[in-house]
Specification:
Shape: globular
CATH class: Mainly Alpha
Number of strands: 0
Largest sheet: none
Helix content: over 70%
Number of helices: 10
CATH architecture: Up-down Bundle
CATH topology: Glycerol uptake facilitator protein
Order of helices and strands: HHHHHHHHHH
Distance between the termini: 18 Å
Strand content: under 5%
CATH superfamily: Glycerol uptake facilitator protein
Radius of gyration: 17 Å
Structural class: mainly alpha
Number of domains: 1
Length: 234
């Protein structure tokens, strides 16, 4: 249970601070500040729960770990459930904070850092463009995760490398789709916001999983005899 609780807490922190920065202080922080909020959340959690659960805190990462046989089916399902619950708790806390503020309107007005395309994209990116963007960004992120956790030598720096990678994919992705690369991170705000965010949610679940699958396939091709660390030793 420690692994699953760790994934729940880690995902809650990522969503609360990442989406919270976008919803509450996005105008002040700008895209770069929001990107660092997501990246720093990963770094912090990696060095706290990394030796317990591997700090996936993202169903796409867990999916790639499952495809590369670094975790079994039971843990994969339990991880995804824990991650989604953690994300929902994080967004619930964020919504409560916003609605408790005397100066902010309410979370339906400020938003909750939800993802979107078309009218919901800052640059009006269409559905096809959004799918390609999320697939590519997730591929880069997950491929980095697989690579940096491949050996004990590189895994010591994994938290920093993964956090900075998440930061740089957000720098590009925020104006395009708000950057998902994480189905749990997209699910929670969409459930609370409803409407357009919920209608477009499918893309931010499927595209990251496609990107993760591509990363796993290429990784297995490049390292066919890889003796990678199992997920709970990363």
């Amino acid at each position: 249970m420690k692994k699953y609780i760790s994934e729940l807490i880690g995902t809650m922190v990522l969503v609360l601070f990442g989406c919270g920065s976008a919803a509450i202080a996005g105008d002040v922080l700008g895209n770069l500040g929001i990107a660092f909020a997501f990246g720093l959340s990963i770094i912090a959690m990696a060095y706290i729960i990394g030796d317990i659960s591997g700090c996936h805190i993202n169903p796409a990462v867990s999916f790639a770990m499952w495809l590369t046989k670094k975790m079994d089916s039971k843990d994969f399902v339990a991880y995804v459930i824990a991650q989604c619950i953690g994300a929902i708790i994080g967004i619930a806390l964020l919504a409560f904070m916003i609605n408790s503020s005397g100066l902010l309107a309410n979370y339906m007005t400020t938003g909750l850092g939800q993802n979107g395309f078309g009218p919901a994209s800052s640059v009006g990116l269409n559905m096809a463009g959004a799918f390609v963007v999320e697939t590519i960004l997730t591929f880069v992120f997950v491929f980095t995760v697989l690579g940096v956790t491949r050996t004990e030598k590189t895994s010591a720096q994994a938290g920093l490398v993964i956090g900075l990678t998440l930061t740089f994919v957000h720098i590009m992705g925020i104006p395009l789709t708000g950057t998902s690369v994480n189905p749990a991170r997209s699910l929670a705000p969409a459930l609370f916001m409803g409407g357009q965010a919920l209608n477009q949610l499918w893309l931010f679940i499927i595209a990251p999983l496609v990107g993760a699958a591509i990363a796993a396939i290429i990784y297995k091709y490049l390292y066919p005899n890889n003796k990678a660390l199992p997920f709970d030793e990363i």
